[in-house]
Specification:
mainly alpha, 80% helix, single chain, elongated
Length: 41
């Protein structure tokens, strides 16, 4: 993969609301199990 493609993928991930919520949950709480993450979003 090229650097440009990697950047495009990163922005595509960040554009997804659910993925942003997952990242926010992990940033706030650290390592979490899937059940906890699903409860948060």
């Amino acid at each position: 993969m090229t650097t440009q493609r990697n950047e495009e993928l990163a922005f595509a991930v960040l554009a997804d609301q659910v993925r942003r919520q997952i990242l926010d949950t992990l940033a706030t709480h650290g390592e979490c199990n899937a059940g906890f993450i699903s409860d948060q979003i």
